[in-house]
Design brief:
It is built from 14 helices and 29 strands. The chain is of the alpha+beta class and 611 residues long.
């Protein structure tokens, strides 16, 4: 049975403002072909006089559709600003029109950044670069002038100049997920030609043309690509709002009721979605599963054959071509069966608190697949549990005092696997933040949470940065354990003199406990069900189980004597996060052409996915 509470957990009244990051985004601004602006550090190129800091600015177009492009600080920076009055949302326009880019106001690009990312310096098919950031100061290029032109105008200008090696990034233009300033890295020469013809029919691209102060040829940048890679504060905040896992990310769980598409808020897929006779339909089924996994953290597959070969088969579809991974200790696949001489407590009937598997690896598994082969009616208990660790850490930061959260960020835990034939250790903090710097100040403890590392059964002595943090660490660990585990542990009846209460109040502990009750997913898996989850984002656990008392007088006409009545057998396996993400991202790239359709939530592996 699926157990999920449907009452929203409200943290607002317990929110510590100092621990809270607030994202503010504004409506996207666009531009049209009538708005072509240029700027130059030369007075001959611009009617405006130089400002005191050596900047120039030129604007063209109506007040509703105005672009201002500025060369700043004597050519060391370029600013592009758009009037917020223009909010066109057209995605594609016929030839002769222009595409739009969303800059949301002013954005500054440094000459060094532009020079290092020049399309002409990128190998057209491999994507490897023949310039490095370290090369910039050997040429000391600064911006002589800049203008916004159409792709057609750029091609005509370069044909007339007859300079070799200049790349105009329209053959094809960079896609939404491209880190390179040219889109040719995704194409063979033959497909580049067809892609160029298709774009020519559908839309006209706008480019920024930069003329350098030395003998180097000009550089051309796709304006939408520049918009994607802005690094001003507003752009960073907007990017974070699309990727960060928060408690609101879990709203789909508490909104769902059991229906044909979900069980307890967990999205459900029938096994047949992966085995359509049409190969294109099978690929679409794989994509739907991966998209749900990396959006929600976990999925449930039903009606799978109870065949021990299914786990490697599913892994080969989701993580092609690498299939299974991390098989050194337990094998490529493993059998979760209670055993008296187990070398892992998962292979017993004991309860398992929320944890990640193989956290002692440098790069521990991405997906975990658990396939229920047997779980007879004679088994009492044994429900599977899941909780989103990234969302829980986000809530935890809002509940507790700053120092309590800090100690989990700064103290390195020792994750360990040592037994006969195994000696593996790895030090990492329980919570990992992405640090961003704004106007010389970093986010501190308000940085985006990009990883949680939690595996209590496989932990050794922690590594403290200061002995004064020891008591604080164990108090923080206690509270974080509460927010991750929906169990019956009595957290309030401890003696009031406990050192715990120096750091955490009973009310804060109650909030942690309430959160775990609210957001823990629980189900006794049935034969043929397969739970697949992101091992870096989701913690999993299990209720303890036991065998029902065996009957002495068995009625052979009922189910008591059926095969597997007293058996519990799961088949498990892992995939590599990098290979599985590569499979997902390449499939996603083929299906999304718009700017925002490709945003991917944090997966919990210590970084955010760009762009």
């Amino acid at each position: 049975m699926a157990v999920v509470s449907f009452t929203c957990f409200n943290l607002e009244q317990h929110h510590h403002e100092k621990n809270t990051f607030v994202c503010k985004t504004e409506a996207a601004a666009s531009f049209s072909s009538s708005c072509i602006a240029s700027s130059s550090t030369s007075d001959a190129c611009n009617k405006n006089a130089l400002d005191m800091d050596g900047s120039k600015s030129t604007s063209r177009g109506s007040s509703e559709n105005r672009i201002v492009i500025d060369v700043l600080e004597s050519g060391r920076k370029l600013s592009i600003s758009f009037s917020p009055n223009n909010t066109s949302n057209d995605k594609k326009k016929k030839k002769g029109a222009t595409t739009s880019a969303s800059f949301d106001g002013d954005s500054v690009f440094h000459a060094a950044w532009l020079w290092s990312n020049c399309p002409s310096s990128i190998h057209p098919t491999s994507g490897q670069r023949n310039r490095t950031p370290g090369d910039y100061h050997t040429v000391s290029s600064i911006i002589e002038s800049a203008e916004i032109i159409t792709a057609t105008e750029a091609e005509a200008a370069e044909e007339e100049s007859n300079v070799d090696g200049v790349v105009i990034p329209t053959n094809p233009a960079p896609s939404w997920d491209c880190c390179h300033s040219t889109g040719s890295v995704y194409c063979t020469p033959s497909s580049m030609e067809s892609a160029s013809k298709e774009e020519e029919e559908e839309e006209e691209r706008l480019l920024v043309k930069i003329t350098w102060n030395n003998t180097q040829p000009p550089s051309y940048y796709d304006l939408k690509w520049l918009s994607k890679w802005r690094y001003d504060d507003r752009a960073i905040a907007k990017r974070r709002s699309k990727t960060e896992i928060t408690t609101s990310s879990l709203q789909r769980i508490i909104d769902y009721d059991d229906d044909n598409d979900s069980i307890g808020g967990m999205l459900r897929f029938d096994y047949d979605i992966l085995h359509n006779n049409n190969n294109n339909n099978q690929e679409e089924g794989v994509y739907q599963l991966l998209d749900a996994l990396f959006t929600n953290g976990a999925i449930l597959i039903t009606n799978a054959p109870t065949n021990p070969t299914i786990v490697p088969h599913i892994a080969s579809l989701l993580s092609y071509p690498s299939s299974l991974s991390h098989g050194a200790l337990y094998g490529d696949t493993f059998n979760v069966i209670s055993s008296p001489d187990a070398h892992n407590i998962a292979y017993t009937s004991f309860p398992l608190r929320a944890h990640q598997d193989l956290a002692y690896y440098e790069s521990f598994p991405g997906l975990q697949i658990l396939h229920c082969l047997q779980n007879g009616n004679g088994i009492q208990g044994g429900e599977s549990l899941l909780i989103d660790a990234l969302a829980a850490a986000y809530a935890f930061r809002a509940i507790v005092e700053e120092d309590v959260f800090r100690v989990l960020v700064q103290t390195e835990c020792t994750f360990v696997k040592q037994r006969e034939g195994a000696s593996m250790t790895y030090n990492r903090p329980h919570v990992v933040l992405k640090q961003q710097h704004h106007h010389g100040h970093d986010d501190g403890l308000n940085g985006e949470i990009v990883a949680v590392n939690w595996s209590p059964p496989f932990e050794g002595p922690p590594v403290f940065s200061s002995s004064s943090d020891v008591e604080l660490y164990y108090a923080a660990y206690h509270a974080f354990q509460l927010i991750l585990n929906n169990d019956n542990y009595d957290y309030i009846t401890m003696d009031d003199s406990s050192s715990l209460y120096k750091y955490i109040s009973k009310e804060q502990l109650r909030l942690c406990k309430d959160y775990a009750k609210q957001y823990t997913w629980e189900r006794k898996l049935q034969p043929g069900e397969m739970l697949i989850f992101n091992n870096r984002r989701m913690l999993h656990g299990r209720r303890g189980f036991q065998h029902a008392a065996k009957k002495t007088n068995i009625d052979k006409s009922n189910d008591d004597c059926e095969t597997g009545y007293y058996e519990r057998h799961f088949k498990g396996g892992y995939t590599c996060m990098d290979d599985t993400l590569n499979r997902y991202r390449t499939m996603k790239r083929d299906r999304h052409n718009d700017d925002d359709g490709g945003a991917i939530c944090n997966v919990g592996h210590g970084t955010t996915l760009v762009p």
